[in-house]
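Team,

Forwarding the record for the chain on the shared tracking sheet. I've put the sequence and predicted structure together so nobody has to dig through attachments.
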Amino acid sequence: MNEHKKSTSFLAQAALAAALYVLLTWLTSLAGLAGGQIQVRLSEALCVLPVFTPAAIPGLFAGCLLANLVTGAALPDIILGSLTTLAAAFLTYKLRHNKYLAVMPPVILNTIVVPLMLYYVYGFVPLWLSFITVFAGELISAGVLGILLHNVLSKYRTQIFTHQP
């Protein structure tokens, strides 16, 4: 594949990851589960995508940024939440050879960052409850759903992803 086709494919995969993240966050938001102390963002299952393509790293970052804008998040949440997703996506890519470890960066990083944001930016108390509920939500969405998505995508890896790590 020539360099132009590779860069076009990379950009298309990143854009698709971003669009899916925004759509799934928006749908989850309609159900009241995309923000607040209890969060189970379906879009967090997509955090497994860097296992399959490095294009998902900027795609998830852009998707989180846009999703937070669309769902009315506060500016610190938009910035820190998106940077947390970027860091988690990069670490997922680095851990891509073990699907169980690969889903842990979004769980761990969001469990640290999101409750602090909920407390300091949005005033949610008690802080300890946010740590528990965000961890549970991330474990469900990024952990369990992420592994299920990994299992499905693994079957079609070469057909779907042209930029494979």
